[in-house]
Design goal:
The complex is a heterodimer of chains A (about 300) and B (about 250). With about 300 residues, chain A is mainly α. In chain A, about 75% of the residues lie in helices and about 0% in strands. Chain A is built from ten helices and no strands. The N and C termini of chain A lie close together (about 5 Å). With about 250 residues, chain B is α/β, with parallel strands linked by helices. Chain B folds into two domains: about 170 residues, P-loop containing nucleotide triphosphate hydrolases (Rossmann fold), CATH 3.40.50; about 60 residues, no CATH class. Chain B is built from seven helices and nine strands; from the N terminus they run E-E-E-H-E-E-H-H-H-E-H-E-H-E-E-H. A six-stranded mixed β-sheet of chain B has the order 5-6-7-3-8-9, sandwiched between helices. In chain B, strands 2-1-4 form a three-stranded antiparallel β-sheet, with helices on one face. In chain B, helix 2 packs parallel to helix 4, helix 3 crosses helix 4 and helix 6 crosses helix 7. Chain B is globular and about 50 Å long. The two termini of chain B are about 20 Å apart. Classes of the chains: A mainly alpha (about 300), B alpha/beta (about 250).
Chain lengths: ~300, ~250
């Protein structure tokens, strides 16, 4: 995360109200010469660390592991060659990824819709909030493993169960953040709406919902990442039908296909990052114009 | 201070307010604000000044006494600008008309006029985050102006801006009072602001808040900024200050 945006409010900076025409909003700061240096100072550390990690990886593959145990950690170029460049292997991974991505998306959409509804209900009546909250926390506290047999028992071992796991894992941050957001509008703004006889729906639409957006997006980004985890975990346990990435990971591990195993892990991580970025981008698009400290995030 | 029963634009009749936790915020407050009057209430922080406005506007129900006021088009200017950060200046200014179901075209006309009146032209499409404190207050004023309220309630509106901006905003408020012809009840803890703006200053004591003195302000409107350096202005301010001090101890 980088918060490079400058504070634009110059409330106490000068006699603004004397010369109204003089003030023309934020001006670009005189930071031009430092731009290149700033860019390198941001991107250099992770690049250096990345190179170091690859180095350690090579060292373990060739220096620590003897030849007959090298299958435990294949060197990077081997992973790229076998896992990514051999089309048969890579297409298998891609197909599984696609299946898991669909599960994650369906799960996420259900979480969003359900999460919004629950949060809105909770925000409208204190009684509802008090009633629902303890059960939500309980649900969140149950380890997903404990639920697996039950879910399989009820919904079978196919896609429904995978999506179910996905929803259980990803819904909590949406509910909590949306609720927090809906309750975040300032007292004075509520008073304003009260003074002008706004009804419940108007208040929700024009005040509470827009006020909730920053928190909603924070929740979405967390949940989007969790939905990918949920899809993989769900697939790991419920293997009927189209194989997803979880099934594939299991298979490679059993067959000692180290290269493909690592390639799958890398692809899954990429998927998570892409999802996270997408929502970060969406956030900047939707609320970046008005929200104080919106940053795309890294 | 006689218990007034005149029916003004706004009249408080023996108002008392005791909060659920037992704090007595206001005790036996009676006064009226008549048409064309600008009444300022000064008092130390925490004396229940703001509570008085909340009661006037109906946000709070008094535990004692009666308020008479027409709340249909009440102008309420808050301590903070309370602008909606996701709306531009123009959209913020249109908000109240929107809540009152005014048509879009009419709303735009009202907003354009209000923007002109407070001098926010050129900033219509800015979001609040890029406005200075003074401009936010102007925007808040403009928003209230769209309703052409016959009565304005000001709740320490300029407390958060710097001195020079505050003086500018005071002059502006005073100019609007002249041109728009509303009546006003203005809460503040600044004595010079109260004297500069109002035709009548009420001094409130703290805990519980009571009106302990009333001063008529004899200067004619429109008032010039130089009035602040006038000997009569200083004398009156001194008197108000003295009363406030003795009420505080």
């Amino acid at each position: 995360m980088s918060f490079t945006r400058e504070p634009v409010d110059s409330a106490t900076a000068g006699p603004v109200d004397g010369g109204r025409a003089g003030e023309k909003g934020p001006t670009p700061g005189p930071r031009r010469p430092g731009r290149w240096r700033q860019l390198s100072s941001i991107s250099l550390p992770p690049v250096v660390l990345g190179v170091a990690i690859v180095g350690v990886w090579y060292f373990i593959s060739y220096g620590v592991l003897e030849e007959r145990r090298r299958f435990l950690l294949r060197p990077p170029h081997q992973v790229i060659k076998v896992g990514f460049l051999e089309w048969d292997n890579f297409s298998e991974i891609l197909e599984a990824m696609w299946s898991s991505t669909r599960v994650a998306l369906i799960g996420l959409v259900i979480s969003i819709v359900l999460g919004f509804v629950v949060a809105i209900v909770m925000s409208q009546a204190k009684v509802a909030e008090r009633a629902i909250f303890p059960y939500m926390v309980t649900l969140q506290a149950i380890p997903i493993l404990a639920l697996v047999p039950l879910i399989g028992f009820w919904f079978g071992y196919g896609r429904t169960s995978r999506v179910f796991v996905c929803v259980i894992i990803s819904i909590f941050p949406i509910i909590v953040n949306t609720l927090f957001g809906l309750q975040s509008a300032e007292r004075g703004m509520h008073d304003l709406f009260t003074l002008h006889h706004a009804n419940r729906l108007t208040r929700l639409r024009k005040l509470m919902f827009p006020a909730a957006l920053p928190a909603v997006f924070a929740g979405l980004r967390i949940s989007a990442g969790l939905s990918v985890i949920g899809a993989v975990v769900g697939d790991f346990f419920f293997g009927q039908g189209e194989a997803g990435i979880g099934q594939l990971l299991k298979k490679y591990a059993v067959q000692l296909d180290g290269e493909q195993l690592l390639a799958s892990v890398i692809m899954t991580a990429l998927l998570g990052v892409v999802v996270f970025w997408t929502f970060g981008w969406l956030q900047t698009r939707v609320i970046g114009k008005w929200h104080e400290s919106t940053s795309g995030g890294t | 201070m006689a218990a007034t029963t005149t029916t003004g634009f706004l009249s408080f009749d023996r108002i008392g307010m005791i909060f659920p936790d037992g704090t007595e915020a206001i005790s036996d407050v009676s006064f009226t604000v008549d048409k064309g009057e600008f009444v300022a209430v000064v008092g130390p922080s925490g004396c229940g000044k703001s509570t008085l406005l909340k009661i006037a506007s109906g946000l709070l129900e008094p535990t004692r006494g009666r308020v008479v006021v027409d709340r249909e088009r009440l102008g309420y200017v808050f301590q903070d600008a309370t602008l909606l950060p996701w709306r531009t200046v123009r959209q913020n200014i249109e908000l109240l008309a929107e809540l009152h179901g005014v048509t879009k075209i009419e709303r735009q006309q009202l907003a354009t006029r209000a923007i002109d009146t407070v001098g926010l032209g050129g900033f219509e499409d800015h979001y609040p985050k890029s406005l200075s404190g003074g401009m936010k207050m102007r925007c808040s004023l403009a928003r209230t102006l769209t309703l052409s309220p016959p009565l304005f309630l000001f709740d320490e509106p300029f407390g958060a801006v710097d001195e020079i901006t505050r003086e500018h905003l005071n002059e502006e408020t005073q100019r609007l009072f002249g041109s728009e012809g509303f009546a006003a009840l203005f809460i503040t803890h600044s004595i010079s602001e109260a004297v500069f703006l109002s035709s009548r200053v009420l001094v409130m004591s703290s805990r519980p808040g009571r009106i302990v003195a009333e001063f008529a302000v004899p200067f004619d409107y429109p008032r010039q900024p130089e009035l602040r350096f006038d000997a009569a202005f200083a004398a009156l301010s001194g008197e108000v200050s003295q009363t406030l001090r003795s009420a505080h101890t």
